[in-house]
Structures are given as structure tokens and as C-alpha cells.
Predict the structure.
Amino acid sequence: MRRKDKEIVNYREIEEIMRQAMICRISLVDGEYPYIVPVNFVVNDKNLYFHSSAEGKKIEILRKNKNVCFEMDIQSEIVKGKSPCAWGMKYLSVVGFGRAFFIDNSDEKKRVLNMLVEKYAGEGDYIYQEEILQKVIVIGVIMEKITGKKSRIP
């Protein structure tokens, strides 16, 4: 990272950003161009998880190339200055790289889906119909490299 003064080196701070973030952007490699999609996600045990329909561009790309980049941020705010060049941005962000994998085991799918639903809806007793589970793809990403960055412009 070029700006060492903005780097977050404490992994617990990075984990907290990932816990609080509501959207993760997943960047995939599709031939000549990158392809980026926002997803609902959850992080657990050094893995990032999200779900998807069984069909679509994201799944097609992941079946060919499992390398991904991901980004999430919280507390983003534009800070106005006296002139446009004096403006800035407050934020806490995480960028990482990893390798995606598909979760096929029904019990593991339910475990991850429960974590996802709990993050966004709170705890509960969730029941998944088997036909729905067959249509849903659950993807994990082994997070291999993660960096955190902050900007607290006064």
C-alpha cells in the first residue's frame, strides 16, 4: 500500500469492517475485462460467503476462473472543502484476493445460508425447502490476502 499512514494493520479492525459492511463487491476475471458484482455476504473462519442463482454470468465466470478480488467499505462520507481540489473522503475499507469454491453439501449450504440470513435479518429458526436449495448456489472464497485502509480527513 502506497499510503502507509492509511493502512489498517490490526486484523481485528479489518474483521470489524467486514462484519459491519452490508455489501461486498466481487470482481471476477472474464477474458479481457473484469466483471464486478455487488453481493450480500458473510465472513466466517477466514472465508467469505455469498449466494447466487444457479445461472448467470457470475456463475459462468466462476466455473472458468475461481480467482476473485473483493471490496467492502463502511462509514463512507464526502468531506467538502473550499475548492473541489480540497475535497476528500472519509472511509474504512477492505480489499482482498482469494479463490472461490462452490458448496454442494446440503447441510453446509444451510449452515452458510443461516449465517447470511442472521446477518441481515437476525436470529431465527430458518427452514429451507429442498427444491429451493437445489436452485441456490452457495459460494465461498478462501481469503488469501487482505488489506484494510482508512481515511479520517478532519
In short: The chain has a mean pLDDT of 91. The first helix runs from residue 11 to 20.
